[in-house]
Design goal:
Number of domains of chain B: 4
Radius of gyration of chain B: 33 Å
Shape of chain A: globular
Largest sheet of chain B: 6 strands, mixed
Distance between the termini of chain A: 23 Å
Shape of chain B: elongated
Strand content of chain B: 25-35%
Oligomer: heterodimer
Largest sheet of chain A: none
Number of strands of chain A: 1
Number of helices of chain A: 7
Order of helices and strands of chain A: HHHHHHHE
Helix content of chain A: over 70%
Chain lengths: 185, 433
């Protein structure tokens, strides 16, 4: 549901509801905060990257049904991996949850045209799902921190098993995700 | 007849994003032993699995409807879509594109509705209001069902709806006495005595008088039977002629300015409604419309609806005005002819003169907006002023042959004309046969 022509862009801006502006603001702010979390974790600012992320986040909020959001998440994740060592910083789950919120908000923006208003009950449902995702992230982070502090050695069998599980999940997800071709009734 | 085109459930970009980040992120984290990447990828993996697990099992079915399909100008109607098999659907989004003369609520035309997971059906409604008379195409109405996390979408396009907005007649009333009539039934008082309700006088009994007409008081006093005489109740045939050659001025719908065609159609509706509610017969002839219409005389509220239906279909025919110049307006004798026209083309005046020359009472209602000459282009404005001067001369010429030209002002517009023809009713006139 992205606008295509310049006139559609103008109409889109004029018709955008206050709620949609709020969602777009969240979509721009969350990845920027994730970059700031990386800065807080390593003590070094990344103004160029932050500007880049903000620009891409703005683009993805205006064109939510595109791949700009994927680029934003990849850049923020890559920056974190490059700039922050260690997993025991509290900013890690914060940044991860912020990216989850960003992904969710962009997904929600993509479902409703700019003039639409998302029902409150839908907001509540999506917030609940994000809370579950955030809880899982924090739980995983706690487990990772615990394993990191134990300095456990790697296990090739367990790793292979985990990879097999991931591959199996990927196949199942793919099978459920692909549907039949379009039809006319 | 409506046509729905549907697309089955398809994965969205959001789902692709979640699956890519989740699967590749977790896989890479395990393969390269990067726990940080695992923490980043984990929520997307959760979203991907959750989305795939809660994918709606089957396509919903959509039954759209527009109700009511015929409304008065300014009244509301609504498109409603009944969705069945909504298991797994998070919310439904309906989008009705903007159309001239159709206002949707909300203004954006976008209605979203959360689907109750305990229900198997869901109804979404988009209220709308017509702001101008005529037939308006609706749609195409886009319906999108969204699964959890916005991962899958089902789309439908519902097209083929048409709203008919009947013109909302202007307020109209007449205080003048009714026109003489030739019919046998109706509400108007005839000049002839007969079986009616209006008191005429008391006269001696004649053979054929009804017994219930006997005036017993007078009969007892005079020792002779007397009856109460009444005027016959008769109706009037009002022949409406609508000039649909062109539309001048800007139409702002029911809440804005009125173009010449707006005024013509609404005034015609008002006059028809006024006379039909009085019990008179009204006929309608639309001249130079794209769709020619000729409604024979009739009475009653159903006939009013028929007239309004035809008025709603009027579309000026800009392309072939000269071809119909010769079309003569045939009006039965005794009818009251009323022509509604902006009088920019002299054809309407020629027709009015033609009707009047047959001895019929005819009035021309001028429906041209007063500010029609106002234009940003000085040349165009000058052209308009020149044409309006010519028009004034043509109108004066018509008035000199006895055809009144009246500006439409709503209630009482026809009073001077009706009084004049009531006064002239008994006067001798020279007619051309």
């Amino acid at each position: 549901m992205n606008p295509q022509t310049p006139q559609e862009w103008i109409d889109d801006v004029l018709e955008t509801s206050p709620q949609q502006w709020l969602l777009r603001l969240i979509a721009v702010v969350t990845p920027v905060l994730a970059v700031l979390a990386a800065s807080a974790a390593n003590g070094r600012a990344w103004p160029v990257g932050m500007s880049l992320v903000a620009g891409l986040a703005l683009t993805s909020s205006l064109r939510p049904d595109a791949d700009w959001a994927l680029a934003v998440i990849v850049i923020v994740g890559w920056h974190w991996l490059a700039a922050v060592d260690g997993v025991d910083t509290i900013w890690l789950p914060v940044a991860s949850v912020l990216l989850l919120v960003f992904h969710t908000v962009v997904a929600l923006l993509a479902t409703v045209p700019s003039g639409g208003v998302v029902p409150t009950i839908t907001f509540a449902r999506w917030a609940g799902r994000v809370a579950v995702g955030a809880g899982a992230t924090v739980g995983l982070w706690l487990m990772v921190v615990a394993l990191d502090q134990r300095d456990a050695r790697g296990n090739a069998l367990l790793t292979a098993l985990a990879l097999a599980v991931v591959a199996g999940a990927a196949v199942l997800i793919r099978a459920r995700s692909l549907g039949p071709r379009s039809q006319q009734v | 007849m409506t046509v729905s085109t549907t697309k089955p459930w398809q994965a969205s970009r959001a789902h692709f994003r979640a699956v890519s980040l989740g699967v590749l992120g977790v896989g890479a984290a395990l393969l390269f032993r990067v726990p940080t990447l695992l923490v980043f990828a984990a929520p997307f993996a959760v979203v991907a699995v959750w989305s795939a697990a809660t994918r709606p099992p089957k396509d919903p079915t959509l039954v759209g409807r527009l109700s009511p399909e015929t409304v008065r100008e300014g009244e509301a109607t609504a498109w409603a879509g009944d969705l069945a098999h909504v298991e797994g659907i998070d919310h439904v989004v309906v989008f009705v594109p903007e159309r001239q003369w159709l206002e949707t609520r909300p203004d954006s035309g976008v209605v979203t509705k959360a689907v109750d997971p305990t229900n198997v059906t869901c109804t979404v409604e988009v209220p709308m209001r017509t702001t101008h008379w005529g037939r308006h195409e609706l749609g195409p109405t886009n319906v999108v069902a969204v699964s959890s996390w916005g991962a899958f979408r089902w789309k439908a396009l519902d097209v083929g709806y048409q709203v008919t907005a009947l013109p909302l007649p202007d307020v109209f009333d007449a205080a003048a006495p009714a026109h003489r009539a030739n019919g046998l039934v109706g509400l108007n008082r005839s000049a002839q005595p007969g079986d009616g309700t209006d008191f005429s006088g008391i006269r001696p009994f004649q053979t054929g008088d009804r017994l219930r007409r006997i005036n017993w008081r007078r009969s007892l006093r005079s020792n002779e039977l007397h009856v109460t005489a009444t005027h016959a109740d008769q109706d009037t045939h009002v022949a409406l002629f609508v000039d649909a050659l062109a539309d001048y001025g800007t139409s702002g719908g029911i809440d804005g300015e009125a173009s010449s065609m707006d005024t013509t159609v609404r005034a015609a509706g008002a006059i028809a409604e006024y006379f039909l509610l009085r019990g008179d017969r009204v006929s309608l002839r639309v001249l130079d419309s794209r769709f020619q219409a000729n409604i024979p005389p009739g009475s009653g509220t159903r006939h009013l609806r028929r007239i309004l239906d035809v008025l709603a279909t009027i579309e000026p025919d800009f392309h072939r005005p000269s071809a119909r110049r010769a079309a003569k307006a045939v009006v039965p004798s005794g009818a009251l002819a009323i022509m509604l026209s902006p009088l920019i083309s002299p054809v309407a005046l020629e027709r009015a003169i033609s009707i009047a020359s047959h001895g019929l009472s005819v009035a021309v209602i001028d429906t041209l907006p007063t500010d029609v000459h106002a234009n940003d282009d000085p040349t165009t404005e000058l052209a308009w002023r020149i044409r309006l001067l010519e028009r004034s001369r043509e109108v004066r010429a018509v008035q000199q042959v006895g055809v009144p030209v009246i500006a439409w002002t709503g209630p009482g517009s026809l009073d001077p004309f009706l009084r004049e023809i009531a006064r002239r009713a008994s006067a001798p006139r020279m007619t051309r046969r």
